[in-house]
């Protein structure tokens, strides 16, 4: 069965010392999607190379035409979506997990000598992963810089991208033993300082009023 909505599984009791740490269900599913999507991402990188020419290389994020020849995939960001109608009904203190819909999409930064130049997106349909978008340079660069700033060199940190499309808001999500945390991705991410993550429940509570005032039209 395809999993599109993830709900936090209640933690059982540990053998000694009280409740066990919560399962990192979003991280687990993100890792499954990242592994399954990798072959399609490699194919997308090949297709991106075919799209790059004298006229398009800048629009696709590259600084020089021949950069694409040495391009490689960066760390994937599986995509989680929060729907407007569910956010409108969210109440402070509610569990944030039922609002987290892991969709079958994964974004990959495209790197040249370790620097983000472009990006590709792949998605799964009818059991097959396939490329859907190329370029995405500005947004992927923001995601990557935010991840770098927040992780501060810790390569063990695992992230996924949490999008609130109706409000045009994007966050890096990661799970800790204390629950789900969100890092706001915005232009300030390019500043050279460590970004702070906030509890997801607090972030969602702060978005409810804007969600209720939303007119339902795309932003």
Helix/strand layout:
Blueprint: H1 25-51, E1 72-73, E2 77-81, H2 84-88, E3 101-112, E4 115-125, E5 128-135, H3 137-151, E6 160-164, E7 169-176, E8 179-185, E9 198-199, H4 200-212
Parallel strand pairs: 2-6
Antiparallel strand pairs: 1-3, 2-3, 3-4, 4-5, 6-7, 7-8, 8-9
Give an overview in words.
The chain is an alpha+beta fold. It has one domain (25-212). 27% of the residues lie in helices and 27% in strands. The chain is built from four helices and nine strands; from the N terminus they run αββαβββαββββα. It has helices at 25-51, 84-88, 137-151, 200-212, and strands at residues 72-73, 77-81, 101-112, 115-125, 128-135, 160-164, 169-176, 179-185, 198-199. Strands 1, 2, 3, 4, 5, 6, 7, 8 and 9 form a nine-stranded mixed β-sheet that branches.
Question: Quick recap of the structure?
Answer:
The chain is α+β, with helices and mostly antiparallel strands and 219 residues long. It is built from four helices and nine strands; from the N terminus they run H-E-E-H-E-E-E-H-E-E-E-E-H. Strand 4 (115-125) and strand 5 (128-135) form a beta hairpin.
Q: Biggest sheet: strands, sense, closure? A: 9 strands, mixed
Number of strands: 9
Let me know the average pLDDT: 87
Q: Which descriptor suits the 3D outline?
A: globular
**Domain tally:** 1
Please compute the radius of gyration using only Cα atoms.
18 Å
Percentage of residues in DSSP E strands: 25-35%
Structural class: alpha+beta
């Amino acid at each position: 069965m395809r999993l599109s909505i993830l709900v936090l599984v209640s933690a059982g009791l540990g053998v000694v010392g009280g409740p066990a740490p919560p399962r990192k269900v979003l991280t687990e599913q993100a890792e499954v999607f990242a592994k399954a999507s990798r072959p399609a991402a490699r194919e997308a990188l090949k297709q991106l190379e075919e799209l790059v020419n004298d006229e398009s290389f800048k629009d696709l994020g590259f600084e020089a035409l021949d950069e694409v020849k040495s391009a490689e995939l960066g760390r994937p960001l599986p995509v989680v979506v929060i729907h407007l109608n569910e956010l409108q009904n969210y109440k402070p203190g509610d569990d944030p997990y039922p609002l987290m819909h892991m969709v079958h999409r994964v974004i990959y930064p495209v790197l040249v000598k370790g620097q983000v130049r472009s990006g590709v997106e792949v998605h799964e349909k009818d059991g097959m992963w396939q490329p859907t978008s190329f370029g995405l340079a500005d947004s992927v660069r923001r995601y990557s810089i935010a991840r770098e700033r927040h992780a501060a060199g810790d390569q063990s940190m695992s992230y996924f991208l949490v999008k609130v499309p109706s409000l045009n808001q994007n966050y890096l999500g990661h799970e800790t033993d204390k629950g789900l945390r969100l890092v706001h991705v915005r232009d300030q991410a390019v500043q050279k300082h460590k970004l702070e993550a906030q509890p997801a429940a607090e972030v969602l509570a702060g978005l409810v009023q804007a969600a209720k005032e939303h007119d339902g039209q795309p932003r």
